[in-house]
Write a structure and sequence with these properties.
By secondary structure, the protein is α/β, with parallel strands linked by helices. The chain is 26% helix and 19% strand. It has 2 domains: 44-376, Glycosidases (TIM Barrel, Alpha-Beta Barrel); 385-471, Golgi alpha-mannosidase II (Immunoglobulin-like), CATH 2.60.40. It is built from 10 helices and 21 strands. The protein has a 7-stranded parallel β-sheet, sandwiched between helices. β6 (126-132), α5 (159-170) and β7 (173-179) form a beta-alpha-beta unit. The two termini are 21 Å apart. The chain binds ligand H79. Ligand H79 binds at residues 64, 83, 85-86, 233, 236, 271-272, 290, 305, 312.
Length: 472
Amino acid sequence: MRTLHFLVLMVLLATACKEKQKSEDQSAKEIPEEETVNYLEESDEAFNERMAWWRDARFGMFIHWGAYAVPAGKYEGKKVDGIGEWIMRNAKIPVDVYEQYAREFNPTAFNAEDWVAVMKNAGMKYMVITSKHHDGFCLWDSDVSNYDIVDFSPYGKDILKALSDACKAQGIKFGLYHSIMDWHHPDAHADTYAGGEPSENNEERFADYFENYLKPQLKELITAYDPAILWFDGEWEKEFTHEQGLELYQYVRSLKPDIIINNRVDKGRQGMQGMNRDDNDYAGDFGTPEQEILDGTSDFDWESCMTMNDTWGYRSDDDNWKSSETLIRNLVDVAAKGGNYLLNIGPDAQGNIPGPSVTRLEDIGNWLKVNGEAIYGTENPGSYKQGDDIRFTRKKGTPYYYAVSFKKPGNHIQFNSLKPEENSKVFLLGYEHPLEWKYTEGKGVTVSIPGKALRAVGNTRAWTFKIKGTEN
Ligand code: H79
């Protein structure tokens, strides 16, 4: 049963029917019906419809890109510990000094079509890029700020325009990450981030930033780039209130009713595990575990965002890459638990995607070309795991189960929870011939794997069995 408290959500068309006043000698003018939509009250049906593409997509790309790619983890010749996009805060770089990075940011090697082709080839169905991170620098030509790629940087071209166009052309859903916290705006960073003293009237000033800067920026973004997702962050900023969170959710939905918004639009998120508090008062369509995967399934929609090394924004010195095996295992684990996987790249200041990221994305894409049917459009089948090395998914609304083994199987593999339909065929994806199987009450199905089947799938990183049947 679904306990989607924070979503709840019934589209309420409160039509205030107004009495039409007619007079004898004047034909009545149509008074438009007043439409009030409360996006915080949406029926399960409407919510499911809005979330459908996102739930089927399963795999997306996160992109952290901005002025922090210029220092790339170093300030005044010294390494600054921590995630690259936090360098301004971590090294306490004054605003005017940090601005110089934006002045230098000139990614002449950036090619939107190539980036989107990399995503597509990796099997990703959507992307989420930082329109603005905490540092406040904007990747589009904002009307309410000059601190953006077009007005402030030598590059002078609108990055979001190029990417959203390329996404449209290549069939990738385009999403935006937008930070509520802003270390550059004088009314939002409250002077403290670069080590200064806190100012007076922070709440009032933040409310002004919220109304006259943050909201107009969101309107610009939604109008110009038609994003499918808005991914907020920095909502823990103490001046930002729960009431503002609710208002932000309503505002963004009113601009684009079928947009999908993460739970960091409001104050409901609990820690890095990213799911919402248990009461039903918080806005947001999905939970956001950061750098981790839920231990089990959840009634809340969720998306695990993760880096391939240890930073989101580019750091020249970060070589701690996860293996392709680990990334594929994570994707399968997330899918089996009913979530999405949002995997990050941090391009460099020239506009190149780091080589180790590209090779890993190719590896995942190659795996998905053979095994993708076990990931896309699937659901948690009930029993989603068997030990550490086997995960299960089911193609939505069908009797087709997928069992993915992270370990290379021997001559046999057993799946305790599955019972194939009588006379049905069991397949190892990547090998065209059906495999022999035997079902035993209490033990589940045992599948025989000939050596030539394993040779046919070759050096894959996870072995997927497709079984038509039921859970036993
Ligand atoms: O954009 C990337 C990071 O820059 C950003 N989120 C990802 C997607 C990020 N911001 N902060 N962190 C990562 C780590 C900081 C976490 C904390 Fe908190 C903020 C600890 C205390 C305040 C939020 C609220 C998490 C725990 C409580």
